[in-house]
Amino acid sequence: MKSDLPKITRPPASGDAARIISRDIKLMARACRRKFSIAVKKIEGSIVLDVNDNAYIDFTSGFGALPLGGQHPEIIKAVKTCAENSMSIPPALYYEGAVELAEELARIAPIRGGVRIFFCDSISEAIDAAARAARWHSGKSVILAFTGGYHGPMGEALVLSASSRLRRPPMKIVDVVYGVGRNCAECPISLEPERCRGECLKLSREIVEAVAPDDLAAIVFEPMGLETPTPPPVSYMEALEGLARDFGGLLVANERATAPARAGRWFALDRWNFKADIVCLGEQLASGLPLGALIARDEILDMEPSEHDFCCGNALSISAALATLRVIRDEGLVERGERIGRTLLKRVREMAGELGWMAHGLGMLVGIWPPRRSAGAGEREARIIVDECFRAGLLLWRISSTIIIAPALNMEEEILEKGLEILGEKIGEVSRLSRASSA
Question: Exposed (0-12), middle (13-18) or buried (19+): which is 432, by Cβ within 10 Å?
Fold first, then answer.
């Protein structure tokens, strides 16, 4: 079977798929755009099967939601067991599963000292709760976020986002200031990593000094975002910590894209031995089931019930999250992700070099994108590469001109190699066409 992958025998949007797609277009909100014209029948590990019996290699991990791929037997077993006992636990009642998950997260969280944990149903809710907790704990109101950051599609999470994916946030921006986001691959002040010292944060410091010198509640950041997934140098993280300390603000890390284990550590912050005050996670923690988690220093979540009353994740999601963490630990996927990730980055960098593009990443999260000077043409080329890979049976994630490679943590190496072969072939084709058109 593996030797036959991927397998495309019928046009993906034909037959039964065409009827499903037509019904979807007729009834779903126009904002519900699908990335690919696939009508999914089943996801088995890192293989997406459609209703036309085509089989695709998934280099997106379910667009970040499936760190172990689809249908992992331990996840299925945990969810079935939970469903047999109770599909839902009312938030007014105690539930051992929630306590066990909190204990698991407390053991590995990159937070100094004791922790308290808050469960909800999405990363947006977790970020929203983090902002509320930071303001309550500090008695301050302003939060610093960074351009290019993305924290979720609704509520305070949307307000704190300043990404190219969002053109017109449908909310009034209140008590949020934006600093210049970093892109260490193309440093805005042209410094090499060894000379960094977080110099780009000086503008953020000036902004806070100008508008909220005594009123900074928190700094919300992604250790490594998706638009330009470049890990910052240690000196940047030290400068970020210093910025928060100088203004008395909390550090809130959004690890939706990088944890658990995606960055070759349980949390990306572990790469720098960095301790945050609050860490937020999303549905990837529960292998795709709706879940948000906020982990914080214990005094930050010492709120009364009237401050944030609903503190309970879905029971099925909590069961899936417990199983996800245990599989990652038992199968050594943190260490495997680091080992395979080094090879993955090396291979992808060689491919990106054919286009004159950059490639960066950590663990099983790698991105390639064009230099700033060719961003317009680069986005067209990125779209062509993703579309051609799709036609060949490989699913990739694209945000603007960045192509993201994020295979499941447990993807078999034979399947990973087949996917890389397709990607290399399509990048080579685009590179040759680009050179021919410019000759």
Answer: exposed
- Strands in 216-221's sheet, in edge-to-edge order, are 115-120, 292-297, 278-281, 250-254, 216-221, 142-146, 176-179
Sequential DSSP letters for 168-214: S-SS---SEEEEPPP-GGG-TT---GGG-TTTTHHHHHHHHHHH-TT
CATH number of the domain to which 234 belongs: 3.40.640.10
How large is the angle between the packed helices 73-85 and 315-330, nearest 10 degrees?
150
- Domain hosting 359: range is 2-71+333-438
DSSP state for residue 3 in the 8-state scheme: G
- d(CA 432, CA 415) in angstroms, rounded, equals 26
Give the C-alpha separation, 362 to 360, whole Å: 7
Q: What is the CA radius of gyration of the chain?
A: 22
User: Which pair of structure tokens corresponds to residue 248?
Assistant: 């008395």
CATH number of the domain encompassing residue 417 = 3.90.1150.10
What pTM did the predictor assign? 0.94
- For residue range 95-140, what is the model confidence (pLDDT) as tens digits? 899 999 999 999 999 999 999 999 999 999 999 999 999 999 999 9
